[in-house]
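ok so I'm stuck.
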Amino acid sequence: MDYPTSEYNEHAPYTSLRGQPSTAGPPIKLRRPLKVFSVTFASFIFLLSLVTLIINQSQEPLPTPNKNPSPSTPKATSFAKREPRGVAEGVSAKSNPSFFSDGVSYNWTNAMFYWQRTAYHFQPERNWMNGPDGPLFHMGWYHLFYQYNPDSAVWGNITWGHAVSRDLIHWFHLPFAMVPDQWYDINGVWTGSATLLPDGQIMMLYTGDTIDSVQVQNLAYPANLSDPLLIDWIKYPGNPVLVPPPGIETDEFRDPTTGWLGPDGKWRITIGSRVNETIGVSLVYQTTNFTTYELLEGFLHAVPGTGMWECVDFYPVAINGSLGLDTSANGPDTKHVLKASLDDTKIDHYALGTYDPVTDRWTPDNPKEDVGIGLRVDYGRYYASKTFYDQQKKRRILWGWINETDTEEDDLEKGWASVQTIPRAVLFDNKTGTNLLQWPVEEIESLRLNSTDFEEILIGPGSVVPLDIGVATQLDIFAEFETELISDSVVEEYDCSGGAVDRSPLGPFGILVIADQTLSELTPVFFRPVNSTDGTLKTYFCADETRSSKAPDVFKQVYGSTVPVLEGEKLGMRVLVDHSIVESFAQGGRTVMTSRVYPTEAIYGAARLFLFNNATSVNVKATLKIWQLNSAFIRPFPL
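replied:
not stuck anymore, here's the structure
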């Protein structure tokens, strides 16, 4: 393949990714278009205006912005570990305690905290949020319920928040749907799912934590089905409808799924648990009225060594076609997805398989890729996902929780914690036959503003190319990459853990998002082809957070996995950037990962976008289309 000379191939080697930038030696030289001065000046004016606005709106004056902030000295030097919040209460960890024993460890400013809030991802106005609950579509409105603490920015006092939208992008906050006010949920109204019956009724099953800290399943339903907003909910007077069965621990019985209708006319639900300490299981119950249940013998599925399963999800996908399926669909042209959130690892795993409605057993297509040991829903900062069937557009929509990777102290300081992903449409990948495809819902395109195209930019080995798009904090990026053939590539093993500084003749190469001009902070999203020891060419898709922030108490790691690339396909990624959230999709959504970043300098007008090629031998050509995205309207409903 011939690679023509380009004005972009005269850049300094990408050696800065080997470690922290050196204080000695020449700075990285980046050749910029002439119009960069005007863009930079405009960005500076925008930043100055925004900071001034924040200062005026704050109750206290902000400290003078520090151009080169440095970590402040912690008040104590003890590194005693604390148990994460939520574990003692019988749920997965809901915090990332600071290693420092007292106070925040970085001199964050209000302006920095303000920038971290997203512009088009759903989040409450304040306080703590975690997993999604009971999403559904009713009378023209999409409903999202979510785990919420109305009192603080840390987990506790879990209540069901409620929001509605016409398009899954712009949201109205509504009054709480359910609060912990009964003996069977006084310690928390935990995760639940909605089942829409053929006659229009809505059955909402949820886990309650009782006054005695026993996990039980409860039923609620709308007080008025003719209300499109479903504001008022009634808890069934006979709650709880399910208690832990014999052999199941009282704190390991939670998160009922959406029901599906069997060929015998009875509804089934499944609930996560574990047995014999290490075997993750999915219990199956059947019911005709959602108030009385029969526990079926055995399990829907069980996988040794995976531990407690929570937030189980179970749904069909069509083998061929571009439409989603109702949860009760089954037949020769369907496969069933079984997904579990693993309490031990805090990772969402899924597998494809076959469901037998007579025996109520699910069998994985590939036992080596079973639930908990194979594919992940998302390879990044992501947990407690849940899908629902959108009967309006005949699609299956996936929600997921992006939790924080800073400390509780920082969350309390800024007054909020956690974000939901952009809703994703889910389909079976009929090209590979081995995985799902996840893709942002089409409604996200309504936020697109101006776009910029870059055609066949040549990126030489060890180089960085700035992309002149202006401020780079709210973006929808499509990028395709082509590499030349080389004969001196080496055989190696690889797993993304080396990050963007782990160089080979073939890679890595990709984009740098939320980066500042000097590359002192950056988040690479990249491909890395590998000639593996089994003689095959594998392609890894990774995101490297290790230099995303100068703050020392932020949890930063490298995410990623292999992505199937079929013959004749170019390497392609789509990346959504929304301030501190980066959602990345490879090869049409075969592999997906979410990053949570907290930069200290690459914020507001200082955030930039770059191409990079850290390979030692191969040349790469990149073609991109990049949209600036508007902000979504997320505000209280004008009741």
